[in-house]
Design a protein that fits this description.
Shape: globular
Number of strands: 5
Strand order of the largest sheet: 2-1-3-4-5
CATH superfamily: Response regulator
CATH class: Alpha Beta
Structural class: alpha/beta
Order of helices and strands: EHEHEHEHEH
Strand content: 15-25%
CATH topology: Rossmann fold
Helix content: 40-55%
Number of helices: 5
CATH architecture: 3-Layer(aba) Sandwich
Radius of gyration: 13 Å
Length: 123
């Protein structure tokens, strides 16, 4: 199965998504914010990053831009998670930065599992 990093500034969300991922057989670990994510990506092998869009200090978009600018990480699969409804322009901007999906929170479990299978090429 996949190795997935969950990045969210809310501990309960990080842990609940981690629990769901592990119940599906994935190896999951967390990062509490953008800087924590970028630091962990220096040493951790990851198949997918589930990245919260709205975080203090460094937004998910800023983290994504840094990932894409790094030659070692540029091709990494990243899916954005947010409670906000994205405008068409916002979604287009995220797609341009190469996200593989856009997941709304709160997460609908059945929908999340289906989308995760597609992202990881398991369908």
């Amino acid at each position: 199965m996949a190795r997935i990093m969950v990045v969210d500034d809310e501990a309960d969300i990080r842990e609940s998504i981690k629990t769901v991922l592990e119940s599906l057989g994935h190896e999951a670990f967390t990062a509490k914010d953008g800087m924590d994510c970028l630091e962990k990506l220096k040493t951790e092998k990851v198949d997918l990053v589930l990245l919260d869009f709205f975080m203090p200090e460094m937004s998910g978009r800023e983290v994504l831009e840094r990932i894409r600018a790094d030659p070692k990480l540029g091709k990494l699969k990243v899916a954005m998670m947010t409670v906000a409804r994205m405008s068409e322009a916002g979604e287009a901007a995220m797609k341009k930065l190469g996200i593989v999906d856009y997941i709304s929170k709160p997460i609908d479990l059945a929908n999340f599992k289906e989308r995760l299978r597609k992202i990881l090429g398991q369908d």
